[in-house]
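Q: Sequence in, structure out?
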Amino acid sequence: MESSPLELSVPATVARADGDTRAAPVAKGSRIADMDIIRGMALFGVLMMNLAEVFRIPYFGHGGPEVDASLLERIVVRVELMVLAGKAMTLFSILFGAGLAIFWERASARGPGATWLLSRRLFFLALFGLAHGFLIWNGDILFLYALSGLVALLFLRAPTWVLLAVAFVSWGWSTVVGPNLPAVWAFAIRNPGPSHYDEALRVYGTGTYLEILRFRASELVRFEPFTYILNLPDVLTKMLLGIAIWRSKVLDLTVRETHLRKLRWIAFTGITLTFGYMLFRWIQFEIYHPPPVRSPWKRVLFLLCILSCALGYGAGLLLLLRRANWRRWLGVFAPLGRMAFTNYLTQSIVFSTVFYSYGLALIGKVSNAQAALMGIVFYTLQGFASAIWLRHFRFGPFEWAWRSLTYGRLQPMRRALEANDV
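A: Exactly. Output:
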């Protein structure tokens, strides 16, 4: 499952004439623009993989690429899986963890109540996730992010070495221990096969909206709990890494120059070694899915490559963003990152309509290459729409709703109301 493109609004102290200093969204000068850019770029990877594996074909029960796929189709599949699969989710989870740390640190600076405010925010994220997963499509990641974030809250006061130790243990659970638990093996035995795949195609392609709701709910209840045995510790690992990375100050542009050597090493090692391994897998065409659980060390190597590649992507982008020309070109992704929550949910609404029966009913009828083209076009349109929207409004509509629920009062929406805010 790909992960979700989210940002956490960061509270700042707002001193007003009436003496009110309640928490409020972060001011423009305090935003970390590089995180917006990287988040916006990762959003593209999330969309492309969701189109490949969740929208155009049923999420549960599908296998590898079609055996009679064209050369173009095979190339698109392999490139997506080498370059994007798992990496976008990992990068988003890391950024989400960094966002947790930023939110909590700045809220704590105001006094008590930071943990409660952040817990409230994650609670509403979980509600968004439940509605998203049951009412729109079953590829939701918001609920998992909310649960993982609540666990990560327990370690926000812990020393960095404790964060890394817990991250190592939780990653070991998700890669070595979890896959070999009897419950997971039982899930593998029950895992939907061709008959379920055909039934899903029929329901999502021709069923009424109520039939789709019932079928999706049965899938989520039957299969999703078992995936949490692996996915929650995995996402938690990456969130804890994000907290540790934020503490290292590497995301702070003012002190990044002191980390250049580390960033270059991470970028080179993460990307070069990972792509070498992935190329070997490409030749064997084992790249589509991780090795089976009966090969634990092979699975560990595969997932370690995904993690190292995502870190390499992040380090490489931070290095590029030091240069004015690259910052200007990559800055086009910032609006997408600032409106990531809205853009993610919009993708779900639009493409579930495109592929399900109550829309164009294209599920099972679109190749991976065609879906990739659809994703590129739609993502480009989202980029233009996000830039135009943010010229007039402080944040996207779903960000506005989420922030208003978090702070317990309606947030000003139009930029004209508070010109200094983002």
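The two ends are 31 Å apart (CA to CA).
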